Amino acid sequence: MTTTTRLPSLYISHGSPMTALEPGRVGMRLAELARDLPRPRAIVVASAHWLARAPLVGGATRPETIHDFGGFPQALYEIQYPAPGAPEVALRAAQLLHAAGLDPHIDPQRGLDHGVWVPLRLLYPDADIPVVPLSIQPMAGPEHQLAVGRALAPLRAEGVLVIGSGSITHNLHDWRRYSEGKPIAPYVQPYIEWVERKLAEGDVAAMLDYRRQAPGAEHAHPTDEHWQPIYVAMGAAGEHFRATRIDAGIDMGFLAMDLYRFDDALPAQAAA
């Protein structure tokens, strides 16, 4: 199935599970984004909360809502996001990944973890668009995630929205130090600005080398499973892309909630 409009790809900072109950600025920005996007026929989400050694694609017909967290209010565990699955889109994604030599497997039972359903509930609250979850392989590195995204790029012309779900900064060690109205962690704003600059420049090499080049990378991401979904979104936009940062604030003083929209580059940008 094809469509005349190529969808962008997205990187979403999904924040704490409490975002589902207290959506704040990111909720407003995602609602605005949904109004601006053509309606997709299906959504593929690479989540920081599904880790595997090889790409796994969720092929469930009715994926369950996974409450993969503890110690939160009961109301959060009662939330359901009953979006249908899309086994045919899962198969198509697996075929594309296989053609790229990435050894995918389909998981017929996988549900939607909170890295999937929390942001989708804010984007598409009616839960009426089929969803296919996708694992990431953080041990394989950023280049691998970029290759996954590039393999999935044809889906954008087939009415499928490709999303990477993680966080621009994510250091849970800083929760007590900076949450509850305390000052913003000093590494957050420099990291936000570096990412925006490098994506505006289309500097893929710098993005892949973020551990050495980005200011405060070791504090922004002590582990990088929440960072690496950005490469899936970036890769799905193709070799030449135009990145648009959407400022969704900073949650709890250490979680930068930026969203990124990746579109095809304008002709002059591509030529450059």
- Helix-strand makeup class: alpha/beta
Q: Give the biggest sheet.
A: 6 strands, mixed
Name of the CATH superfamily: LigB-like
- Estimate what percentage of residues fall within beta strands: 15-25%
Helix content: 25-40%
CATH class: Alpha Beta
Radius of gyration: 17 Å
Describe this structure in words.
The protein is of the alpha/beta class. The protein has a single domain, classed as Protocatechuate 4,5-dioxygenase, Chain B. The protein is 35% helix and 18% strand. It has 12 helices and 10 strands. It has helices spanning 24-36, 74-77, 87-99, 114-123, 142-152, 175-178, 188-200, 204-208, 210-213, 217-220, 229-236, 267-271; strands at residues 9-13, 42-51, 56-58, 105-107, 131-136, 160-166, 241-246, 250-251, 255-256, 259-264. The strands form 3 sheets. A 6-stranded mixed sheet has the order 5-2-6-1-10-7, sandwiched between helices. The protein has a two-stranded parallel ribbon with strand order 3-4. The longest helix is centred in the N-terminal third of the chain and has 13 residues, at 24-36. It is globular. It starts with 8 loop residues before the first strand and ends with a helix. The mean pLDDT is 93. One of its GO terms (molecular function) is ferrous iron binding. Its cofactor is Zn(2+). This is Extradiol ring-cleavage dioxygenase class III enzyme subunit B domain-containing protein. It comes from Pseudoxanthomonas spadix (strain BD-a59). Residues 31-240 form the Extradiol ring-cleavage dioxygenase class III enzyme subunit B domain.
